[in-house]
């Protein structure tokens, strides 16, 4: 049996696309006859507080589903203050260095990026000619930060670019979630070994049951992080509710603002359901006509994993984020595409969608397409040959 270590910032019991993606990778490798271990911080995402079950400890090691998980200390924070965020990343980096000093590491290590500083810590301290370092790039930083307005092109940005290049240079193999990510990396290092590793979900698809669509309004749903990048609060204020009822699941920085908006504007047809487990969410989503996948600004390299997850659920999509995600939606005929941040075009498109279009036949077709093209097991099998 081969050994593999995964180093990540997010892992269950934390929720969200990042933790789900890494968990499925770890579980998939374990099923492919790998002995898998994971290093991750003490659970704290997305609230920025250590979960109750892990408070008061500096390190927790457990074995779950035959995977050994080392949870290390971190200064937990989700503050918008850049200094506090930097301290949080550095604290985890210091914990990693301490771990590296006292533990023997396997010859195959998969490092999640971003955060860039955490990835840099790994690429710098555990590089070894006999060790294969695999860098799993899910977003392009610092480019994404620049597009989101979090960075300016100054000395700090140039330093982050140097760190980014160092990470790519030291990686023996780079996994990228999009064609844009791989194109960016090979533009810097043309001979770098790369692998397109989409964020395909790993769960049993539900059987779709035909339901009447005799309600007047389209029941549209958003499920996920209520963060700045998604822009759900602004979306709530810009939507035309004549044709839709908007349902929201999730938590994040905009949660209170959205709740206050609903409380002070009862005429807005919005229902906030809070945060529920992933399995509960999958069941809930089957009762909606349409889902919206928004990004406030187009982020180069980003392809939301929701596309692949909702495909397996047979849920029609309205993509409102720009970039490569548009290509995936159009290519596989999963729904509709509207230019990012164009709310006039969004409302126009919503007014044109008839409730009768969102029928059982369309949902079945979406699910069949997803099962054929977004196959986690097939992708993992090809990946294992590259490791």
Helical segment tally? Answer: 14
End-to-end gap:
14 Å
What's the CATH architecture name of the largest domain? 3-Layer(aba) Sandwich
Structural class: alpha/beta
Number of discrete domains: 2
Low-confidence stretches at least 5 residues in length (pLDDT < 50)?
Answer: none
Radius of gyration: 21 Å
The largest sheet is: 8 strands, mixed
| CATH homologous superfamily assignment of the largest domain | Glycogen Phosphorylase B
| Name of the level-1 CATH class of the largest domain | Alpha Beta
How many strand units? 14
Beta-strand portion reads: 15-25%
* Global mean pLDDT: 90
Shape: globular
Helix content: 25-40%
The neighbouring-strand order within the major sheet is 3-4-2-1-5-6-7-8
Detailed description of the structure:
The chain is an alpha/beta fold and 387 residues long. It has 2 domains: 2-201 and 375-386, 3-Layer(aba) Sandwich (Rossmann fold), CATH 3.40.50; 218-373, 3-Layer(aba) Sandwich (Rossmann fold). It is built from 14 helices and 14 strands. The protein has helices at residues 17-31, 82-102, 116-125, 143-147, 155-170, 179-188, 232-238, 255-264, 278-285, 306-312, 324-332, 343-352, 360-373, 376-386; strands spanning 2-7, 34-41, 59-64, 67-72, 108-113, 132-137, 173-176, 194-196, 218-223, 244-249, 270-272, 290-294, 317-320, 335-337. Strands 3-4-2-1-5-6-7-8 form an 8-stranded mixed beta sheet, with helices on both faces. Strands 11-10-9-12-13-14 form a 6-stranded parallel beta sheet, sandwiched between helices. Strand 5, helix 3 (116-125) and strand 6 (132-137) form a beta-alpha-beta unit. Helix 2 (82-102) runs parallel beside helix 3 (116-125) and helix 10 crosses helix 13. The chain is globular. The relative contact order is 0.10. It comes from Corallibacter vietnamensis. InterPro entries: Glyco_trans_1, Glyco_trans_4-like_N, Glycosyltransferase_grp1. This is Glycosyltransferase family 4 protein. Keywords: Membrane, Transmembrane, Transmembrane helix. The chain crosses the membrane at residues 86-103, 109-126.
């Amino acid at each position: 049996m081969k050994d593999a270590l995964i180093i990540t910032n997010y892992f269950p019991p934390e929720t969200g696309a990042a933790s789900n993606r890494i968990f499925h990778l770890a579980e998939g490798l374990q099923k492919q006859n790998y002995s898998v271990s994971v290093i991750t911080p003490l659970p704290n995402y997305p609230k920025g507080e250590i979960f109750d079950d892990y408070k008061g400890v500096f390190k927790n090691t457990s074995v779950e589903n035959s995977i050994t998980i080392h949870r290390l200390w971190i200064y937990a924070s989700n503050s918008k203050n850049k200094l506090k965020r930097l301290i949080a990343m550095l604290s985890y980096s210091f914990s990693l260095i301490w771990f590296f000093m006292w533990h023997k590491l396997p010859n195959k290590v998969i490092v999640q990026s971003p955060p860039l500083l955490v990835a840099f810590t790994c690429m710098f301290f555990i590089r070894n000619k006999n060790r294969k370092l695999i860098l799993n790039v899910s977003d392009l930083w610092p480019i994404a930060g620049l597009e989101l307005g979090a960075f300016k092109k100054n000395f700090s940005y140039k330093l982050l670019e140097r760190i980014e290049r160092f990470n790519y240079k030291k990686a023996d193999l780079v996994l990228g979630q999009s064609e844009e990510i791989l194109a960016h990396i090979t533009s810097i290092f043309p001979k770098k070994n790369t692998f397109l590793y989409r964020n395909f979900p790993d769960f049993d698809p539900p059987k779709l049951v035909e339901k009447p669509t005799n309600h007047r309004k389209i029941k549209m749903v958003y499920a996920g992080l209520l963060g700045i990048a998604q822009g759900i609060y602004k979306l709530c204020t810009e939507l035309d509710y004549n044709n839709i009822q908007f349902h929201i699941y999730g938590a994040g920085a905009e949660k209170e603002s959205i709740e206050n908006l609903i409380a002070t504007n009862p005429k807005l047809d919005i229902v906030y359901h809070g945060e529920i487990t992933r399995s509960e969410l999958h069941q809930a989503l089957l009762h909606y006509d349409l889902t919206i996948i928004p990004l406030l600004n187009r982020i180069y390299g980003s392809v939301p994993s929701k596309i692949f997850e909702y495909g397996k659920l047979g849920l029609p999509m309205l993509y409102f984020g720009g970039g490569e995600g548009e290509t995936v939606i159009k290519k596989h005929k999963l729904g509709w595409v509207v230019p990012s941040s164009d709310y006039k075009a969004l409302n126009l498109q919503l007014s044109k969608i008839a409730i009768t279009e969102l029928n059982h036949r369309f949902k079945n077709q979406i699910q069949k397409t997803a099962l054929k093209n977004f196959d986690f097991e097939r992708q993992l099998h090809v990946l294992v040959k590259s490791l």
